[in-house]
Amino acid sequence: MDIGVVVIVVVAIVGGVAYDALKMRYKYRHLASGKGFDELQQELRAVKERLATLESIVTDKKYQLKEEINRL
Fold it and tell me: Which of 4, 16, 28, 65 has a Cα-to-Cα distance from 36 of 20 to 30 A?
């Protein structure tokens, strides 16, 4: 096997690992700065509101009656 091919493969692998490590480092720094955490909290609040709305619709007596009528 040619040494040049081996060097290219090793450089590609090391470069890929280094790129992933830097990407993860940036991601965790962003989350640690609080900006990412605030965004996640807002998204969680929005999801909880949507879930509460869906729960109220599904547990509503009119919805249940409509479902029973549709099944017949």
Answer: 16
Q: Which two tokens stand for residue 4?
A: 């040049």
- Residue 36, pLDDT > 80, answer no
Q: How far apart are CA 52 and CA 28, in angstroms?
A: 31
Query: In 3-state terms, what secondary structure has residue 2?
Result: coil
Q: Which two tokens stand for residue 1?
A: 């096997």
Residue 30 carries which DSSP code?
Answer: H
pLDDT tens, position by position, 40-56: 788 889 999 999 888 88
For residue 59, CA distances in Å to 18, 45, 49 come to: 52, 21, 15
Max Cα distance, the chain (Å): 76
Q: pTM of the full predicted structure?
A: 0.43
